[in-house]
Each structure stands twice: as structure tokens, then as C-alpha cells.
Design goal:
The chain contains 4 helices and no strands. It is an all-alpha fold and 84 residues long.
């Protein structure tokens, strides 16, 4: 097997991972963003489109108020009960 054939297989696998599993591409871009001083994923139009796509697929849910616990007047059991 030559180097070119192995590289082609790696590129094909990478392409299918990027196309069939989009979060892999996002994780890869975040990794590049962290280690590259010239790349900023949060200002990328592609990342914004991906974010809008993911958010648009979420189901609409009614807002649920957070249970109020007054500091000093609750125990561990109260926190566990209210978090269910």
C-alpha cells in the first residue's frame, strides 16, 4: 500500500465523519480554535448557521420556574426533593 492510498482512506473517513456526524466537525473546529491564535469559531458564520440549525430542531417547551430555596432554611433533603 502506498502513502497516497492511505492518505486517501483517511481523507474519505474524515469526510464521512464530517458529513454524517456534524458534532465531530464542531469539536474539531473548537480544538483548532483553542490552539490557533488566528482562528475564532465564535465569530464564524458557519458556526452560527450550525447553532441556529441545532436550536431550531429543539422542541418548544413551556418555561418552568426554578424552585425558591431560602439560604439557611433548607437541608440536603430539601434540595434533593426540589430538584426532582
Amino acid at each position: 500500500m502506498s502513502f497516497g492510498g492511505g492518505l486517501l482512506k483517511v481523507l474519505c473517513i474524515g469526510f464521512f465523519l464530517l458529513m454524517l456526524y456534524p458534532p465531530f466537525a464542531v469539536y474539531l473546529l473548537i480544538f483548532v480554535d483553542y490552539y490557533s491564535p488566528h482562528f475564532d469559531i465564535m465569530n464564524s458564520p458557519i458556526y452560527e448557521k450550525y447553532h441556529n440549525f441545532v436550536v431550531s430542531r429543539l422542541p418548544l417547551r413551556e418555561e418552568v420556574p426554578i424552585p425558591e430555596l431560602i439560604a439557611g432554611e433548607f437541608s440536603k433533603e430539601d434540595v434533593i426533593r426540589e430538584s426532582r
